[in-house]
């Protein structure tokens, strides 16, 4: 049997253990497990990695617990500008949208662009219009807002006025969702979706929709989805760098992904993490913060989720 594998993240901006109620932690972990099952259904029936990562990301975009879609961060003007990308490692086809405000599931708009093939990236109102013209669900911007994000914006703006923004917790700063998969045909895919960081300037675009930076997949090498301050992921072209280290230097996924997070990005003192899967179904999920919402299903079918150091085994699906 050819290996299949799936890994997801819900961002490295995880609260202190005490920052959420027990019920909220359990709900967030349950949503991670649902996202994994949604992707696994596709993979276990012989479906495409591309469809699996999209299915997983949609569940995370619809969950209020993660910074993407419903529950996304607010920018400095109190508005949502969402970024997303998806990439097919088999063909290197990709689609991406940035600063969109009305598409319920930005990853679907990225996928529509991938299928279209003539464009790769659309931004702002033009991307919203494109999604509408392609029959995707359009929502009022307040669909994305949750009380927690409104409170977090107030806290970040208070930090800014007090000159203490750098000391804000990782949870106050950012988050993202993403998925990577290997399918039974040996193809890899990655997808990422985010509200960016809280209190970001209007018009700021992060790494998630930048192919090669926050989202990247190349058959034979790996698929990567990142989380953390996007400017640095773009400067280090993180996804492409990991794939290239595997391809050119024959490094293991674990080593290449760990080098980017724990060495290359470490010098900037930023929160950073990623999930990645290679052509054999190995999974890596390094992060340098107190926690990263994450989960995976190994080729054996073992489904696990985690927020901080402790990993919860949920079930075996094979
Ligand atoms: N990478 C995202 C961005 O820079 C934010 C995050 O993952 O924390 O937009």
From TrEMBL:
Keywords: Autocatalytic cleavage, Hydrolase, Protease. The keyword Hydrolase applies. The record marks 175-176 as: Cleavage. Substrate binds at residues 204-207, 227-230. GO terms for biological process: proteolysis. It holds the Pfam family Asparaginase_2. It comes from the Bacteria. The active site is at residue 176. Coiled coil: none annotated. CDD domains: Asparaginase_2 (cd04701). GO terms for molecular function: hydrolase activity, acting on carbon-nitrogen (but not peptide) bonds, in linear amides; peptidase activity. This is Isoaspartyl peptidase.
